[in-house]
Amino acid sequence: MLASGDNHRKHYPMHIKVPMKPEAIALTWPLMEPNTTSPRKQGRAKICFDVAFDPRKDNNVVVLEGAFRMDSIPYETIRLPASTHCTLTEMSIFLDMEEFNRWPINVMRKDGIRCLDVLEAIHKMLQRPLTDGDVRTFGLAAAQRGMRRVDLLGGRRFFRGLSQSGENWTLHMGSSWY
């Protein structure tokens, strides 16, 4: 017990800034990374998108429902907002493979980013021809200079979803659509 008149409260300066944890942002289902650990979420529809193909063209993005049913993604679905609870106007996305972090994918849309904007930005970034710096970084022969970034992914060309990583996003890629 404190004796009267003793003031043992600690005083902290008001100018100390404590970093805040980034806001957790929920994505619309086509952009979410599949959750294979939850039985309830395993049956959820997923999209199949090979990043080598333009997502604006018919049948290049399909919805998988169950084990075998595939339908072209509906016009309204691919144009859903990227987030279910806020309007995202900017996203910085990095591939889940460290060697490709030199190619950030920046998505911006002042009216709010849609699923199509994200898929299109991924496709466009990976369609760029390799630069001389890329050729040196990846140790490619001069004969391979006509390659595009997507060619370096090998079999890992399928979009598996995005996950939040602080203020940025991680693009998960896989060798198959399931």
From TrEMBL:
A Pfam family hit: DUF6699
DUF6699 domain ranges (all copies): 69-165
InterPro entries cross-referenced by the UniProt entry: DUF6699 (IPR046522)
Protein name (Swiss-Prot/TrEMBL): DUF6699 domain-containing protein
Organism: Lentinula lateritia
